[in-house]
Design goal:
By secondary structure, the protein is α/β, with parallel strands linked by helices. The protein has 3 domains: about 100 residues, Elongation Factor Tu (Ef-tu), domain 3; about 100 residues, NADPH-cytochrome p450 Reductase, Chain A, domain 3 (Up-down Bundle); about 140 residues, Rossmann fold (3-Layer(aba) Sandwich). About 40% of the residues lie in helices and about 20% in strands. It has 15 helices and 15 strands. The protein has a 6-stranded antiparallel beta sheet, covered by helices on one side. It has a 5-stranded parallel beta sheet with strand order 13-12-11-14-15, sandwiched between helices. The longest helix is centred in the last third of the chain and has 16 residues. It is globular, with a radius of gyration of 24 Å. The relative contact order is 0.14. Bound molecules: flavin-adenine dinucleotide (FAD) and NADP nicotinamide-adenine-dinucleotide phosphate. The site of NADP nicotinamide-adenine-dinucleotide phosphate (NAP) has 23 residues, from strand 12, helix 12 and helix 14.
Length: about 375
């Protein structure tokens, strides 16, 4: 048993950090290892790791400067009793992005320059809801202070309007049978540009750029999940995990290989380009050679004019997928929820209808039961 959980995270040491995507990639996907030594924490394949990030110090400084604060101001975080400095609150406790129209309203009420007040009033009254939403989504607090410098608010008002800085979850990509005292993560570092400014995801950039190697400072907890390998090692598994969605499947295959489990393992992996984004290519090659991985089907979307996705590979192998399912296989999906997981789900329904010789309605019922039986599991985000 461990004393560490979400309310009392373990200050883990980051012991490895390396790029998985090559320098020529359009993405920055990285591998991280954190040590569990001294924590008493345990995990199983399919679990996630919660990470509490801190904000980028440069972003904190930029916000303090734009808002006209020193950082020494004393503030109290809502639902907390003790006071801390504004600098510490902005670094560890609140989110620097995601301002709302409540904040825009406050700026409007406090603006002393007529042109700013009029512009803020027009933004609040904007009738086109989509336009209104898009405008605020492109801005962080720092942008609003910079755009409306005549509006002065107090440090306490600011932290009361900011969202709490939340931990981020990452699917664990190591197996406890091989690494009982370490947890591996496979993370796409979020970097983009809006409103003429470079932005970064808080937690992925914290792990990639700011967390010190070998210092006990990354607060983590294990988030248990129902997502996981079948209890029976002989059951075959089909895993669909493009991009960072491959994370839990590295854990699954590593675990079965380490324990010498006999069940067959079939992975569908995809990403942008084979030469740059083939995550853990050497490991898959070794697992294929040893027989731990039975099949690997790849879909590199940007290596040719037409997009090729994992569900295209599923369609090409529909009869074989149905055969595995008929032989008892579990079917797993991990990664992007918005597009990929929906399309893979539709493809699974089509395979069930065609090869199970079912109507579309009957296929829906069949897949529902497949899910209820715990044989169709998804870890999508
Ligand atoms: C169960 C679970 C498992 C997960 N597993 C993994 C995993 O294994 N690997 C992994 O990498 N992630 C995983 N995630 C996602 C992860 O938790 C974070 O959401 C992700 O790392 C982004 O967090 P961040 O703090 O870096 O970015 P944030 O600071 O949260 O910023 C992300 C936000 O930035 C904005 N944004 C991003 N890109 C753009 C753009 N191009 N244009 C405009 N706005 C943009 C969007 O509003 C987006 O929501 C998982 C999530 C869940 C719930
Ligand atoms: N919660 C989140 O914040 C979240 C979740 C998932 C992804 N993302 C964003 O995605 C970035 C990378 O994530 P990732 O590494 O996991 O990879 P990803 O973006 O999910 O991409 C992996 C592969 O999936 C392909 N793909 C795109 N649409 C698809 C679809 N409808 N069906 C099947 N495959 C599809 C991509 O192709 P193309 O790109 O060539 O179309 C690429 O080859 C992150 O930096 C993040 O910005 C964010």
């Amino acid at each position: 048993m461990s004393n560490f959980d979400k309310n009392n995270p373990f200050p883990s040491r980051l012991v490895d950090r390396r790029r998985l995507s090559s320098a020529g990639s359009q993405k920055d996907t990285q591998h991280f290892s954190v040590s569990l030594e001294g924590s008493g924490l345990t995990y199983k394949c399919g679990d996630s790791l919660g990470v509490f990030p801190t904000n980028n110090p440069q972003s904190v400084q930029a916000l303090l400067k734009a808002a006209g604060f020193s950082g020494h101001e004393s503030v109290t975080i809502p639902k907390d009793t003790s006071s801390i400095t504004l600098h510490d609150a902005l670094t560890k406790r609140v989110s620097l992005n995601g301002p709302t129209y409540k904040f825009v309203q406050l700026l409007h009420d406090r603006a002393t320059a007529e042109n700013e007040k009029a512009q803020l009033a027009a933004l609040i009254a904007e009738p086109d809801a989509e336009k209104k939403k898009a405008w605020i989504e492109q801005r962080e607090y720092v942008d609003l202070f910079a755009e409306f410098p005549s509006a002065k608010i107090t440090a306490q008002e600011l932290v009361e309007l900011q969202r709490k800085l939340m931990p981020r979850l990452y699917s664990i990509s190591s197996a406890p049978s091989k690494y009982p005292n370490e947890i591996h993560l496979t993370v796409a570092v979020v970097r983009y540009e809006t409103n003429g400014r470079k932005r970064e995801g808080v937690c992925s950039s914290y792990l990639a750029d700011r967390a010190q190697l070998n210092a006990p400072e990354v607060p983590v907890f294990v988030a248990n999940s129902h997502f996981g390998l079948p209890a029976d090692d002989n059951i075959p598994v089909i895993m669909v995990g493009p991009g960072t969605g491959v994370a839990p499947f590295r854990s699954f295959v590593m675990d079965r290989a380490t324990r010498g489990a006999k069940g067959r393992n079939w992975l569908f992996f995809g990403d942008q380009r084979k030469d740059h984004d083939f995550l853990y290519a050497d490991e898959w090659a070794a697992y294929l050679k040893s027989g731990a991985l039975t099949r690997l089907d790849l879909a590199f979307s940007r290596d040719q004019a037409e997009k090729v996705y994992v569900q295209d590979r599923m369609r090409e192998n529909a009869a074989e997928i149905w055969k595995w399912i008929s032989e008892g296989a579990y079917f797993y999906v991990c990664g992007d929820a918005k597009h990929m997981a929906k399309d893979v789900d539709a493809t699974l329904h089509a395979i069930v209808a065609e090869h199970g010789k079912l109507s579309a309605e009957a296929a829906i019922e069949w897949v529902k039961q497949f899910k209820k039986d715990g044989r169709y599991q998804r870890d999508v985000y």
